[in-house]
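## retry 2 of 3
previous attempt timed out at serialization; input unchanged, resubmitting
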Amino acid sequence: MRIRRGLSAALLLLGIAAAPAVADSSPSASPSDGSSAPTQAGTSFRTATEIKQGQQATASGSTGDYLYWSFPADAGQRPTVKATVKLPEASTRHAGQTWQLDVYDGLRRRQACQYGAQTRTAAQDAATVELACTLRTVRSWSETWANDPLPGTYYVRLTVTGLQASDLGLPVDAEVEVGSKDIGGAAAVDGSLAKPLVPGIATSAEKSDSDSGSSTAALSSIEPEDGWASGWWSDRWVWTAIGGILAALAGIGGYALTRGSGRPSRVPPGV
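## retry succeeded, writing output
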């Protein structure tokens, strides 16, 4: 009876401990908020339009323009960027067009797509072209020589890379949406960045000793809904606790099986 009670209590603890891990496995993108979604794009890294994960941003431009957006990505997330380009009327085009979607991290290093159609060629009579790029999981820390994705601001660049010169300047409309999946402790590493890689983070931390009132760069106004991760917590702690409980249960069960029923009645005391 005592062993049965211990097993019941341990199973209850396992259910409580596993709940945060199950919650962490759900997608982290917030619902789309069409009322506040941006309706224009930047033309460079410095002027990139900030969007939140889950928003569907739109923009109008001309064929040949570079369109830029930026979004935040935190440790443990695997971002996916999707873009849809509404092409000009087929009667105004002279040939097919090749469009490309590039993603850069906070250090403006181009990040490779783990999967997705990053470059696509649309036929002359096509109405739209759809692109997608799923990045590797963002790590909380990395070696200086590595090109691993790190927490901070990410930049999306959308442009046409192949078309006839006569098609330059034709009007196009673009839609961009960013979502991410929370990978959790499976991608956790030891260590964390002192600060996320967002624009202005370095200069804003510097304090001027002069009274001249020197200006500092403005930080990016976007960040994950729950703030930037501190780097110490991951669901690996949960699974470590579960492993410890299972080991304790195995020890109790082994002891119960091997201890026997005590001293046999036929053996006299003191022997």
